[in-house]
Amino acid sequence: MVDEAPGGVRRIVIVGGGTAGWMAAAALSRALGPIGRSVVLVESDAIGTVGVGEATIPPIRAFNAMLDIDEDRFLRETMGSYKLGIEFVDWSRIGARYFHPFGAAGQDFHGVPFHQLWLRHRARGGTTRLTEYSMCTVAAREGRFGIAAPGDRTPLAHIAHAYHFDATLYAALLRRVSEAQGVVRHEGRVVRVDRDGEHGDVTALLLNDGRRIAGDLFVDCSGFAGLLIEGALATGYHDWLHWLPMDRALAMPTGRIDPLPPYTRATAHPAGWQWRIPLQHRTGNGHVFASAFTTADAAEALLRAHAPGDPCGDVRSLSFTTGMRRRAWSHNVVALGLAAGFVEPLESTSIHLIQHGILRLLALFPGAVVHPAERDAYNADMARAFAAVRDFVVLHYKATRRDDSAFWRMVQAMTVPDSLAHRIELWRAQGRLIPQEGDVFQVPSWAAVLTGQEWWPAAYDPAVDRLNAASVEAAMADMRAAYRRTALALPPHAAALPAAE
Ligand code: FAD
């Protein structure tokens, strides 16, 4: 234990008390408190938080574990539920549905990816879906959930899960964790940002009541405002609206769904899509739409018509521009969360990008001085992660056959980023899916979405023909049966949740 850091970054100031701010506060104080760095957080109750962001992907479990947040406590305190993936409704065409599960579908045979075996199965007249070989999909379809014990080698070990949770309750839990680790919170509105005349680094924040909060490193978690990264440093923004034209969302809570589904649902609409996120105490619903293609009134009417019950709260309206800051770390300011950028929430990735940014910041945390090389490494890494998420989300729109509205005709015909175009070319030729640096979603996820949206390659990988078709078919049938048997032995999702204390 060091009483005081030897120099350089000693005092970290976080602006913002939304999910990003409190995730950063909890993780940075945990990792850096013991080596003499202090963390303070400024948030404004009057401004409030964005208050949405309720579905996640599996790495969130590692983040909670890093903070020693027990899963049962987490689910109780955030009214959370388990998530096994996302059901997509009406995406490739009206009336079609598919599931994007967490974890793998099937198992690779002798180095041949499972989806290639399945493509041969399909080419030979097989009628099963790729995701019937996924433990998460089969359990989700049955509305069941279970977790394998450590060392379990049964199909249950193939369950991979994330959570749905109440974002406000998660921030409150993280605040308790942070304050117990010594984080000091200041309530107030930042009205001025002071910078060093020589280098341009941020030196202090002035609050509306005259308090001055000085620091060495500033973490901008101020949401879409980007108070420091944009407001003070004018870093600039890559706007991706031409690939992802959604720029508005209406969010509306309804009552709890029974039985409680262990998955998110994303239903496509004529100019966007609608989420359904099942929590213990309510259901989160929202319609994400492109305002160039519909009106807010029409969007709200669709949201209400497709909601699973009567509203139990107000409809909230949010506007955003999909994209990311040109540099997430500029001078001595690191932007996280919505201040760093936003890719619309179709694959529940924003909280993951916050987590990713925090872990990279810790890995590259400055010593006596901020080295430009470390800052550049951080920016390059975050740019790759954002682009990887963007490409995966764009795929859902590009890979459609819907032509029932101007919106779907436009996204189907649009030119996609080169990085995605290259992947699509590989897929269309022989179903090849090559992992790329920075990928957030792995091969099974790409395969689930591409096959789910019924985008078929011209051929499968000829390497598959090295494997005897009859024995592969037999192994596939056994696998499918084992997943189904295992799923049917699990408890219903609600029964798998921890009982209230
Ligand atoms: P905010 O919640 O906006 O917090 C900003 C903070 O900064 C607040 O505390 C505010 O008071 C403070 N602040 C701002 N200005 C000042 C000032 N001048 N002085 C003092 N304090 C200030 N993510 C997912 O992972 N899964 C999802 O399912 C998901 N769904 C989403 C749906 C929609 C429609 C949207 C818009 C986002 C969604 N997200 C989702 C993203 C997710 O909501 C955010 O990543 C997450 O909430 C983090 O927000 P934040 O903390 O960056 O910003």
Provide an overview of this structure:
This protein starts with 10 loop residues before the first strand and ends in a 5-residue tail after the last helix. It has a domain at 11-79 and 165-238 and 322-388: FAD/NAD(P)-binding domain, CATH 3.50.50. The strands form five sheets. Strands 5-4-14-15-16-13-17 form a seven-stranded mixed β-sheet. The protein has a six-stranded mixed β-sheet with strand order 7-2-1-11-20-19. A three-stranded antiparallel β-sheet has the order 8-9-10, with no helix packed on it. It is 35% helix and 19% strand. It contains 15 helices and 21 strands. The protein has helices at 19-32, 60-66, 71-78, 114-123, 135-142, 167-180, 227-232, 296-306, 350-363, 372-398, 406-413, 418-430, 443-452, 469-488, 493-496, and strands at 11-15, 38-43, 81-83, 85-89, 97-101, 162-164, 184-187, 190-195, 202-207, 212-214, 217-220, 237-239, 248-254, 264-269, 272-278, 283-289, 316-319, 323-325, 329-330, 333-335, 341-342. With 501 residues, it is α+β, with helices and mostly antiparallel strands. Flavin-adenine dinucleotide is lined by residues 15-21, 42-44, 47-50, 52-56, 167, 189-190, 221-223, 225, 227, 249, 286, 318, 320, 337-339, 345, 348-351, 354.
Number of helices, counting only DSSP H or I runs of 4 residues or more: 15
The rounded Rg comes to: 23 Å
Biggest sheet: strand arrangement: 5-4-14-15-16-13-17
Average pLDDT reading: 96
CATH A-level architecture of the domain at 11-79 and 165-238 and 322-388: 3-Layer(bba) Sandwich
Helix content: 25-40%
Strand content: 15-25%
Catalogue the unreliable spans.
1-5
Distance between the termini: 36 Å
CATH superfamily of the domain at 11-79 and 165-238 and 322-388: FAD/NAD(P)-binding domain
Enumerate the distinct ligands. Answer: flavin-adenine dinucleotide
- Major beta-sheet overview: 7 strands, mixed
CATH class of the domain at 11-79 and 165-238 and 322-388: Alpha Beta
Assembly state here? single chain
CATH topology of the domain at 11-79 and 165-238 and 322-388: FAD/NAD(P)-binding domain
